[in-house]
Amino acid sequence: MNAAELTLAQELAEVSRLVEDDDVASALQRFLERITRTVPGCDRAAVAVRERRVEFVAAHGPRAGEVTGLPSQDGPIAEALQFREPRYLADTRTDARWPGLGRRLAEAGCRSCLVLPLPRQRTPAAALVLYARQPQCFGDTAQDVALLLALHAGVVFDNAQLFHDSRRLIDQLNAALRTRQLIGQAQGLLMRQLNCDQERGFALLKGASQNTNTKLRDVASALVAAHDNGELPAMITKFGVDDAAP
């Protein structure tokens, strides 16, 4: 294995570790930094997605914001996302397919542009966009390197999104469980304080929430905290619960 091959292998290994203890946005940013270091001639890179419209979710490199601010709804990026096919502008000044966009890219210092769709099992569709200062920059070697990184990254980011979506779902379930336990605790306090059954206790709790335009969990939290501080009767009065008690 020569030095170039070894460097590429090391970069592929690093891409697979980008998402460890990291969020997807940060992983994308670090991935683009590696892209600009590894792909010959590349000095700016971005990731674009398409749901209802084309949007850039990450960018790296000099004047990257200026480039990603250009219209992208009709052009190589939109086509790559729609058809899942690469698009290459070898020279933005002379490419006749998108002359308006090509001219604006050239004015922003980009003479070459390569768009590679990221292979993903999840939505939305995503593409890697590479820019270079020189025309004819992304030849066969550069395209092969970029394609290897894009293929690897598509799987990595699918797994990252799945991991973070799962973790977010677990956090939501834990929060829901804590809220349920809190409401049950407040319900029990009302049952004991107002000498009512379980159904009536929950009805009083719900009524206090509606009458004061306060979230149910916040009413429950206030009642539990008041009980801990020896102020439960006053809090019951504040929420008007005792007025509705049997």
UniProtKB/TrEMBL annotation:
SMART domains cross-referenced by the UniProt entry: ANTAR (SM01012), GAF (SM00065)
Keyword Transcription regulation on entry? yes
InterPro entries found in the cross-reference section: ANTAR, GAF, GAF-like_dom_sf, GAF_ANTAR, WH-like_DNA-bd_sf
Q: What is the superkingdom listed in this entry's lineage?
A: Bacteria
- Sorted alphabetically, which keywords does the UniProt record give? Transcription, Transcription regulation
Q: Where is the ANTAR domain?
A: 163-224
One Pfam family, short name? GAF_2
- Do the record's keywords include Transcription regulation? yes
Q: What is the protein's name according to its record?
A: ANTAR domain-containing protein
Which source organism does the UniProt entry give? Prauserella oleivorans
